[in-house]
Prior knowledge:
By secondary structure, this protein is of the alpha/beta class. The protein has helices at 7-18, 34-40, 57-67, 81-94, and strands spanning 24-27, 47-50, 70-73, 97-100, 109-119, 130-139, 147-152, 161-162. The strands form two sheets. The chain has a four-stranded parallel sheet, with helices on both faces. A four-stranded antiparallel sheet has the order 5-6-7-8, with no helix packed on it. Helix 3 (57-67) packs parallel to helix 4.
Amino acid sequence: xxxxxxxxxxxxxxxxxxxxxxxxxxxxxxxxxxxxxxxxxxxxxxxxxxxxxxxxxxxxxxxxxxxxxxxxxxxxxxxxxxxxxxxxxxxxxxxxxxxxxxxxxxxxxxxxxxxxxxxxxxxxxxxxxxxxxxxxxxxxxxxxxxxxxxxxxxxxxxxxxxxxxxxxxxxxxxxxxxxxxxxxx
Length: 185
């Protein structure tokens, strides 16, 4: 799955995917720090960081996918075709979820944040309370039909959740009809 370059979306997906599954890893994303991971809900004691996987990054990524169920990956050069097939096979066999910060050639689902509105800042002052984002989903096979959702990413309560359509114009906080975002599973 590709998060289209939006780190808050990537972290929300990783937190949802790793809930109750144990470990997770970050490969080639040195800008992602432990504080951001913890704030998103990832258990730091179960995480692994590999900032610079080197020239043999496909082998590193395959090994990591065999070790942990959720892997976030940053920008990497394209994998040779044979190695790309091997990475896909490792994912199928291990059941690992690969979440790409940017684009990923073999991604079945591509997410893209199209608009962002920060809540809480008045005319030049105030505290940020939440980030409303419109996320568009496209993909292959079952995900071929484009879909769109408005999310708190994160919301005033610090959680990721869907925004009820009636709550979007002039919204000051989570709507009464809001439901928790169930990203995967």
